[in-house]
Amino acid sequence: MDCVVVDLVSYHFGTLEEGARDAIDDHLLGCTACLRSYLALKRQVARGVGGEVPSDAVRARLRGAVAERFRPSTLARARGWMSRPIPFYQGLAAAVLALVVAALLPAFADKTPPAAGGRYVDTARPLAESLSIY
Amino acid sequence: MDPDEALYARVRRGDMRAFDELYARYESRLYGFLLSMLRNRADAEDVFHEAFMKALDARDVELRPGGFRAWLYRIARNSALNVLRGRERGARAITSIPEEAPRLRADERLEGHELDTALAGAVARLPPRLLELFHLRSSGMTYEEMAEVLETPLGTIKSRMSQMVTTLREEMKPWTAS
Q1: Which positions ≥6 away from B146 have C-beta within 8 Å?
Q2: CB atoms near residue A75 (< 10 Å)
Q3: Complex confidence, ipTM
Q4: Segment B25-61, tens digit of pLDDT
Q5: Most B CBs within 10 Å: which of A16, A61, A70, as the mutation test of the B interface?
Q6: Which residue of A52, A79, A108, B118 shows the fewest CB atoms closer than 10 Å?
């Protein structure tokens, strides 16, 4: 098939008969120039002629309107949050944390400074004095 | 990739990421389609907004698989026709011959960025009814979908497609022929 009769526009828009379409398929496999032209045409059409899009303001306005219109109610959001399954590792981490806290609590309780007649006694001071800090 | 209908359902549940994806799929093509009909950026933007909101806001809609695109375009097209009617020149605009775009020199072989200009010029010279088809087909619609959007019999769509391709082919000859 000669490049002159390669009908890329009809080919792209799918209006060719099967035989003609097959012939162009074969031609494109062997002709780099036509293949390049076809790919360029396809790209331009896919992008939309001119490739124009609405302004960012239009997008922001529409997004705001959609968010406002379809925002889930507080109740629905709370229900969704409550029904969300807690992943196993999060539950495990919470259990380990609870055990650690339970194990450390008595140790902290033992170090509570003793009170004598309502007066605070600094139990660390004699040690500090023996080390000549004071 | 999620189908449009799934994204549509998620947007209606307030999922804005689904909205962003749906918007990205249509911003260029639907807007291009509206701009080609209305030939005015502000009007095209207003109709684009209105069509999206109408589609999302519609109640009791049961979309068949793959049905969202044709439905959105039909809403958009009807809104655009209302604007044209509101301008009191809708009927004339839809049948009038568009402004003449610059033609290519017959001996010109186009490359790279020139293709964009050549194609835009050729498309701009299409009559409005064929221009609609060009945009719908370029957005990947089947003949059946186009018939649904344009509310036109399938046979008429096929015949217009043939006219559209013949016209474009003639316009693009300098580019498609070596």
Answers
A1: B133, B136, B137, B152, B157
A2: 8
A3: 0.74
A4: 999 889 988 988 888 899 999 999 999 999 998 877 7
A5: A70
A6: A108
